[in-house]
Amino acid sequence: MMNAVIELQEEELLYLALGAVHRDGARAAPATHVQVPLAGGRSVILPWGQGRTSWRAASVYLPYRMTGRLRVALGAAAAAAGGTLPSCLRLRLDAEGSFLWRLCIRHWREPFHFAVYTGTAGPGRKWTVRVMDAEGNALAYAKVAACPAARLLLQNEGVRLADLAEVSGLVGRVPEAIGFWEEDGVSVLLLSPLEGRRVPLRF
Length: 203
Fold this sequence. Notes:
Elements: H1 2-18, E1 20-23, E2 33-37, E3 43-47, H2 52-57, H3 66-80, E4 89-94, H4 99-104, E5 113-117, E6 126-132, E7 138-145, H5 148-164, E8 177-183, E9 186-191
Antiparallel strand pairs: 1-4, 2-3, 2-4, 3-5, 5-6, 6-7, 7-9, 8-9
């Protein structure tokens, strides 16, 4: 029971790192994002009513299974048009002034749009955030963690990426660690965008 409470508290910290969050009801109006639930307690959080940006935000996570990809695609299409699938949750993220926003403003000009993959539910969960410009182009990816074990993993990942950046021939092949920051129980590892290639579904 105590572990479940701790996990909920850590998840709230992750939400707050992206801005004050109101979920459904009158406080969620006007909505800024929609949360699309997936199998395994995972979900994606996409900008709502932003047209092409909402659609492009779906690339924050592409499930391996076709059913999962279809669900993300349908959720993104509805969000792009200002609609919501029945099982989805409307959110309001007041991102300006949040921890992640203050990190992004150091490197890029506003406006920013955030799309989130929440990862598998349970201990060690960390979120992956696609930071986008007004057109939906990826400016960076941020990994955000509140669990002590996940925070340590992010710190170690930043160190390893810094080491790889010194290896000749790996430029453009591995993400660049832009920086690692901690605040109020949350760690953020900011990475340069490195768009991968689609692989056949059998992989």
